[in-house]
Structures are given as C-alpha cells and as structure tokens.
C-alpha cells in the first residue's frame, strides 16, 4: 500500500498504534508522560513542572518556493509554525534546535538571512536557539524543534481532547489571509499595495499567538488547537480527540478584510480551508469567552458550538440554518 492511500492522518494513526503497541509503558519516561502523539505538542511532568516539545518542518517545493519566499521570511516562518504549536498548548516556548539542509550552491548570505529571520522572532519570545544539525541536500529543508513548558506552577495546558458539548467555539484574529497571500505570490496577482502586503505577510510572516495561548489557560480555557491546516480540518481534530460534534455558522467566520475585498466569492473557502493562518481555535463556556474577549487585544469571534452526538461530525450552516459546503476540506499531505 502506498502512503498516499492512507493519507497523512491515516499514516500518523498507523505509526501511533505501532509506537503505542511496542513501548514499555512502565519505563520512567512513559510514567511521566502527560500527552503523547495526537496533540499540538507532547507534554510530560518534569521536575520543575509540565514540559512541552514540538517539531515541524518546512520543505522546498512542499511548503515554500524559493522564487516567492525571501530567506528572512522563511526563517521567521519555520520558527513561527513551531511557536504556534506551543501557543496552542498555552505554553511558554524556551529553546529551539534547527536542522538545516541546503544544496551546496546556496549563498551564505541567504543562510544568514534565514537565521536572522529566526533570531528576530526568537528574541521576541525569549527563545534560545541552542543547537541543530547541518547537511547537504538537493532541496532546502528546515526542521525546527521547540521545547517549552506550562506557564504556571499549577501546570495546566490546553489540549485537543478537552472540548465539551455546550461550549462555544471561538477563533482569534482573522482567517484566510495566508492562503490568499500564497495565491497572490504564486499567481503574481496585482491588488492594492496595502492589501497585498497584509496578505503576503499573513503567509510569509505569521505571528504565533503565544501570549494569547497563555492567557487562555489563565482564563480557564481547556481546549485549543492552532489553525495550521484550516479551520474545518483543525476543528475536526478537536472533535475527534474530544469525541464530540460541532456546528459552525458560516456567517460568523472572520475572513480577513483583504480576503473579503479581493477574493469575494472564495472568502469563505479560504477562511475555512486555506490553512496556515496560525490563529488559535478554542472552546469554552460563554462566561469564559466573555472574559477572553475582554482580556485579549486581538479580535475573538465565536463561530459555532460543540455538540454531543456523532464524534467528529461537523456541520456548517448559513444564516437560515441550511448546510453549507465551503469548497475543499483543508490541507493534508499526500492528498492528490
Ligand atoms: P501539527 O499540525 O499541530 O503540527 P500534526 O498534524 O503534524 O500536528 O501531528 C499530529 C500529531 O501526530 C502530533 O502529536 C505529532 O507529534 C504526531 N506525529 C506526526 N507525525 C509523526 C510521526 N512521523 N511519528 C510520530 N508522531 C507523529
Ligand atoms: Mg498544531
């Protein structure tokens, strides 16, 4: 069987089962494990509190094209996507290691720009870049691993499995900007300079919601994921892990203003299935969400609610309650 027949998530499930079936659960490392495969980061009980680790790669030709991606932004983004997974746990990122593969003919100045992008973002969050690996390869790839921890001594983290029926589903910021930005770069679309730079930045230089994630934990939110694959796809991860269903209201989805202005009829598709916005999707009671809205400096929109019923089933409805299908389902590796 080919990997493509299983799909990315099928392959991860298969590996997770194999790993789970073969490891010695009585080992000290296993006994300290709090969250293994299946969330935005893994977590374990360290001597000084809950520790977190996550890793993500960017591959030339899969995640970026060098023709449209400046090296500085490539560095920024390769760390940002990892910080976003720590943000989705409500954690504090602390250390990063970087595995870099480049063709021999790569310019040294380009590699320096890549690292400057990473370092500028690392500095913002007090992340120390403490090691990595370097090798030759036919294409550029950057794999970053970030270690961090829960912010407070009470050691709570946000998980994909904590959503409960009756909770509202909310999202930070605006969606669809990254997918629109990628399209503008790929197709060299000419739109007004302000929108163009806003969308380009959404795709190339996402701002991980690290402070916001920590605030969510503090305010009593329990369930969250970062939007890397697309709102619907990432909400599905929450619903699968939490064994719940969900109802999303299409009219409430906060498509970025520049997306609505320039991709009118496709705004909903880009905002729900575009991916790579690295906003946080979370669930909580009305009372908690009111507090979140009051405390976060970014926009927070309620887009639906968690339902009991068929685990993993999600319906999107329009203002009249009629089902809506907003185009494709979200990013998935190996999906033709
Ligand atoms: P994210 O989009 O948040 O980075 P992924 O969809 O990449 O999350 O991964 C989902 C879960 O599967 C995570 O817990 C991740 O650690 C785990 N995972 C992904 N690939 C592998 C693999 N090759 N081996 C073991 N675990 C994996
Ligand atoms: Mg994630």
Provide a descriptive summary of the structure in words.
The protein is an alpha+beta fold. The chain has three domains: 1-37, no CATH class; 40-150, PurM-like, N-terminal domain (60s Ribosomal Protein L30, Chain: A); 168-317, Phosphoribosyl-aminoimidazole Synthetase, Chain A, domain 2 (Alpha-Beta Complex), CATH 3.90.650.10. The chain is 37% helix and 24% strand. The chain has helices at residues 3-22, 28-32, 71-87, 108-124, 177-186, 193-204, 210-218, 231-242, 257-262, 267-273, 286-295, and strands at residues 33-35, 42-46, 49-59, 91-102, 128-136, 141-150, 168-172, 223-226, 245-249, 280-284, 300-307, 314-317. The strands form two sheets. It has a six-stranded mixed β-sheet. The chain has a six-stranded mixed β-sheet with strand order 8-10-7-11-9-12, with helices on both faces. A hairpin with a 2-residue loop joins strand 2 and strand 3. Helix 3 (71-87) runs parallel beside helix 4 (108-124) and helix 5 (177-186) packs across helix 6 (193-204). The longest helix is centred in the first third of the chain and has 20 residues, at 3-22. It is globular. The two termini are 15 Å apart. The relative contact order is 0.16. Magnesium ion is lined by residues 40, 85, 88, 225-226, 228.
């Amino acid at each position: 069987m080919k990997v493509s027949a299983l799909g990315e998530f099928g392959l991860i499930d298969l590996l997770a089962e194999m790993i789970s079936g073969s490891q010695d659960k009585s080992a000290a490392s296993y006994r300290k494990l709090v969250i293994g495969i299946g969330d935005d980061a893994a977590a374990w009980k360290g001597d000084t509190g809950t520790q977190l680790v996550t890793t993500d790669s960017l591959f030339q030709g899969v995640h970026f094209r060098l023709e449209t991606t400046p090296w500085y932004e490539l560095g920024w983004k390769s760390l940002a996507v990892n910080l976003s997974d720590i943000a989705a746990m409500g954690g504090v990122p602390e250390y990063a290691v970087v595995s870099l593969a480049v063709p021999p003919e790569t310019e040294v100045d380009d590699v320096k720009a890549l690292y400057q992008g990473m370092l500028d973002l690392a500095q913002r969050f007090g992340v120390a870049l403490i090691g990595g690996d370097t090798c030759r390869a036919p294409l550029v790839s950057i794999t970053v691993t970030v270690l961090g921890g829960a912010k407070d001594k009470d050691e709570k983290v946000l998980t994909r499995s904590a959503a409960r029926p009756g909770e509202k589903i909310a999202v930070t910021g605006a969606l669809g900007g990254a997918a629109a930005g990628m399209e503008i770069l790929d197709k060299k679309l000419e739109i007004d300079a302000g929108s163009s730079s806003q969308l380009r930045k959404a795709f190339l230089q996402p701002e991980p919601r690290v402070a916001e994630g920590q605030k969510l934990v503090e305010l009593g939110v329990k369930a969250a994921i970062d939007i890397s694959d697309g709102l619907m796809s990432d909400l599905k991860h929450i619903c699968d892990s939490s064994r719940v269903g969900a109802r999303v209201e299409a009219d409430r989805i906060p498509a970025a203003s520049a997306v609505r202005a320039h991709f009118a009829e496709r705004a909903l598709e880009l905002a729900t299935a575009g991916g790579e916005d690295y906003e946080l999707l979370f669930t909580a009671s009305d009372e908690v969400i009111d507090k979140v809205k009051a405390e976060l400096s970014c926009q927070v929109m309620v887009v639906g609610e968690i339902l009991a019923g068929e685990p993993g089933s999600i319906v999107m409805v329009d203002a009249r309650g009629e089902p809506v299908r907003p185009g494709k389902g979200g990013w998935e590796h190996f999906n033709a």
